[in-house]
């Protein structure tokens, strides 16, 4: 007889997510993913000036503010067929890659490492042995004996003082925890170092974005950063030189600590390279555009079916009809009704709520179910790595090979690409994309300086709005995967606006054909050691980096009296 | 001596915007010394670690649910602070409590924290605050100015106010 477990809310994530699983014979046999909070940004945008949409959309989420700003201006530019200056493209690319590096570091160390690392076990470690282990794995300068002794002392201080703060969500002593005390201490040391390092990525965003957490420099048509080679008041070469220093520090940490740690977790938890597979249709979008129009990109994107790299179909430009025509959303299992059945394209999206309470066999989520040409798809770093490998993207191939080689060496067995379709694979893919991003960050920095050196200081092309109706899509390969904003503009005002966000693709409920979404599919067959402490469920869900504040639609609050957001 | 006045909340959920609007009003109506930084934190988290490290004084504007009447202004300080942040369960699960916990790990906690909170009327979707909450924003700003001055920060009315 199956036992139903409800985890509500899933913690250490952004937004309110509920997961239900049926457990039978120590394994999950069915799962349901339910978004428990609505999002109303689309309603607010109707009738407004499209040039203001980015500033409002970046408020829908506390984690991914900048990604929504970027997708929004791209959607308007796409509708207007507006090219932006090269400098603007480079500055946006630097902000986006720095943001992505920040997000990946924080996600791995601060939001998911505690699913694998037992902090209290680290207390039993020998700091000197930990240092020897660390130094055998990489050349990182902070794996020294001195540093490990310091961290060990600090940890004792925290535990003895009852000040464990952020660590209190950890499942200490859980039977599924497998790392040795030394590996745990090494991970805790890197957790603390990551807190320091992540600041550098955020500084880059804040200098170029004029402000964080909510950047202010974006504009439809480019960016609002005045560039100069002399004046102090604007973005100068001197400030850009400081940024280069931080990029180098980030690269050191990402390549010599983060990538290695993920590989080590993969080697010590080898069984987790066979758990959490789920949906193997993968969708990513190309990004880091290298021209003003968005026809050339520093990394590719496209669609893969059934995990078969040979089936890869690329998306080649911001105007590519292959992406634009392929996306639909259905609501059979969502708390909405459509005027006709079936699925709807985002330009024609409807959002009439129909809240029914949680009904596992009927409607159970505020998320819609998106499909790509009728197929459920997983998005995120794993999709980006697999499409990158399919497209023979050089940097992706280099770091993915390095990650698999490190896991193989540590596990003392050959670990191949198949292992990537898993819970650990998603973490490894995030580390691989983080390495690619930190290199791109550096390249885009050079491209900006080179272009400024040629005397080009342009950052903005003024948008002109026609009276007729125009429609556009803006996409961005965000830290959690393919994000798209869809806009219909009439007479310079917003007529329709829809956001199809990465966590809608991954956390969606079953679709029209009753096929489970990626979260739901990935949980099936997961072994559960202790039904009262379903750590294993959290491991797989956290591997997607859930962030669902933005994943939920509501465009009509008038008709819905059943649900109130208690946002305090 | 460094202080931050931080406004938090989601500006698209009507009264949830109160903290952010208070920061904007403080910036508009007062001239602050360089030692005082204003931050519109929105609903963000870890991005704020840099700015909130090693402060002498952190003043937080927020919306609070204490059971008092809507529009009531509440000050939380001293021993009540850790309790307040422990109990705070928000749809934005990665928020200020996690930032503060991280600052604790970094040994960079603010020396003093005060929260000035407003009881909301509505947290429904909308860019406008309710009149009840909008009306108390100036009072909240006044309290912040008094708190800053009491700790030796020279806060003056903006020039437009003097004229």
Structure explained in plain terms:
The complex is a heterodimer of chains A (568) and B (163). Helices cover 40% and strands 15% of the residues of chain A. Chain A is an alpha+beta fold and 568 residues long. Chain A has helices at residues 41-45, 53-57, 65-80, 86-112, 119-122, 127-137, 145-160, 181-208, 237-268, 321-324, 381-390, 394-411, 423-453, 502-507, 518-523, 535-543, and strands at 3-7, 17-24, 27-35, 218-219, 222-223, 282-283, 287-289, 297-299, 301-304, 313-315, 327-330, 336-337, 343-344, 352-353, 369-372, 469-478, 481-490, 493-500. The radius of gyration of chain A is 23 Å and the shape is globular. With 163 residues, chain B is of the alpha/beta class. The radius of gyration of chain B is 15 Å and the shape is globular.
Name the helicity range of chain A: 40-55%
State the shape of chain B.
globular
- Strand elements of chain A, count: 18
Main-sheet strand order of chain A equals: 1-2-3
Contiguous helical run count of chain B: 6
Instruction: Tell me the Rg of chain B in angstroms.
Output: 15 Å
Which quaternary structure do these chains form? Answer: heterodimer
Overall number of domains of chain B: 1
Strand arrangement, largest sheet of chain B? 3-1-4-6-5
Structural class of chain B: alpha/beta
**Mean pLDDT over all positions of chain B:** 85
CATH topology assignment of chain B: Rossmann fold
Q: What percentage of amino acids of chain B are in beta strands?
A: 15-25%
User: Which residues of chain B form runs of ≥5 with pLDDT under 50?
Assistant: 88-93
State the name of the first-level CATH class of chain B: Alpha Beta
């Amino acid at each position: 007889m199956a036992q139903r477990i409800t985890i509500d809310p899933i913690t250490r994530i952004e937004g309110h997510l509920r997961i239900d699983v049926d457990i039978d014979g120590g394994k999950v046999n069915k799962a349901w993913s339910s978004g428990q909070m609505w999002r109303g940004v689309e309603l607010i945008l109707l009738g407004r000036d499209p040039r203001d949409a980015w500033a409002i959309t970046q408020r829908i989420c506390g984690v991914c503010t900048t990604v929504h700003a970027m997708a929004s201006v791209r959607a308007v530019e796409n509708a207007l067929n507006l090219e932006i200056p090269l400098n603007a493209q480079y500055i946006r690319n630097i902000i986006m890659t720095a943001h992505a590096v920040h997000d990946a570091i924080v996600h791995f160390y601060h939001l998911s490492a505690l699913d694998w690392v037992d902090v209290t076990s680290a207390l039993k470690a020998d700091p000197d042995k930990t240092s020897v282990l660390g130094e055998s794995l990489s050349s990182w300068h902070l794996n020294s004996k001195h540093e490990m002794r310091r961290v060990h002392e600090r940890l004792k201080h925290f535990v003895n003082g009852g000040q464990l703060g952020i660590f209190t969500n950890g499942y200490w002593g859980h039977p599924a925890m497998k790392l040795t005390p030394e590996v745990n201490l090494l991970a805790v040391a890197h957790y603390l170092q990551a807190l320091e390092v992540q600041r550098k990525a955020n500084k880059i965003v804040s200098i170029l974005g004029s402000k964080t957490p909510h950047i202010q420099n974006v504009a439809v048509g480019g960016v609002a950063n005045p560039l100069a080679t002399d004046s102090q008041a604007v973005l100068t070469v001197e400030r850009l030189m400081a940024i280069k220093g931080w990029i180098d520090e980030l690269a050191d940490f990402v390549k010599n600590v983060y990538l290695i740690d993920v590989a080590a977790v993969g080697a010590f938890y080898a069984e987790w390279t066979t758990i959490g597979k789920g949906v193997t249709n993968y969708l990513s979008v190309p990004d880091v555009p290298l021209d003003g129009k968005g026809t050339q990109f520093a990394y590719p994107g496209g669609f893969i079916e059934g995990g078969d790299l040979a089936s890869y179909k690329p998306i080649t430009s911001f105007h590519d009809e292959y992406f634009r025509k392929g996306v639909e959303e259905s609501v059979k299992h969502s708390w909405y009704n459509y005027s006709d059945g079936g699925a709807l394209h985002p330009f024609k999206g409807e959002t009439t709520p129909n809240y029914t309470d949680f009904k596992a066999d009927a409607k159970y989520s505020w998320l819609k179910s998106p499909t790509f040409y009728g197929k459920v798809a997983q998005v995120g770093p794993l999709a980006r790595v697999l499409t990158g490998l399919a497209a023979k993207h050089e940097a992706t191939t280099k770091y993915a090979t390095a990650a698999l080689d490190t896991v193989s060496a540590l596990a003392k067995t050959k670990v191949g690409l198949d292992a990537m379709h898993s819970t650990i694979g998603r973490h490894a893919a995030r580390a691989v994309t983080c390495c690619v991003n930190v290199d791109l960050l550096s390249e885009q920095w050079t491209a900006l300086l080179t272009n400024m050196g040629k005397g080009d200081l342009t950052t903005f092309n003024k948008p002109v709005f026609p009276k007729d109706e125009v429609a556009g899509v803006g996409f961005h390969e965000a830290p959690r995967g393919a994000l798209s904003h869809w806009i219909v503009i009439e007479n310079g005002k917003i007529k329709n606006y829809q956001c199809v966000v990465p966590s809608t693709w991954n956390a969606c409920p079953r679709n029209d054909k009753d096929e489970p979404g990626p979260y739901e599919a990935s949980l099936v067959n997961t072994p559960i050691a202790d039904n009262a402490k379903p750590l294993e469920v959290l491991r797989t869900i956290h591997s997607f980096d859930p962030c669902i504040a933005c994943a939920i639609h509501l465009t009509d609050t008038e008709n819905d009296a059943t649900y109130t957001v208690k946002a305090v | 001596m460094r202080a931050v006045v931080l406004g938090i909340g989601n500006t698209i959920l009507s009264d949830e915007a109160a903290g952010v609007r208070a920061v904007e009003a403080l910036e508009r109506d007062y001239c602050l010394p360089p030692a005082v930084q204003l931050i519109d934190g929105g609903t963000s988290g870890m991005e704020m670690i840099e700015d909130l490290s090693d402060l002498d004084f952190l003043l937080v504007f927020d919306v609070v649910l204490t059971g008092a009447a809507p529009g009531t202004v509440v000050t939380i300080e001293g021993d009540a602070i850790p309790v307040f942040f422990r109990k705070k369960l928000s749809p934005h699960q990665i928020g200020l409590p996690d930032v503060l916990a991280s600052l604790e790990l970094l040994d960079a906690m603010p020396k003093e924290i005060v929260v000035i909170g407003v009881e909301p009327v509505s947290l429904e979707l909308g860019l406008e605050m309710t009149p009840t909450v909008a009306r108390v924003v100036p009072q909240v700003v006044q309290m912040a100015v008094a708190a800053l001055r009491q700790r030796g920060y020279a806060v003056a009315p903006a020039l437009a106010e003097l004229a």
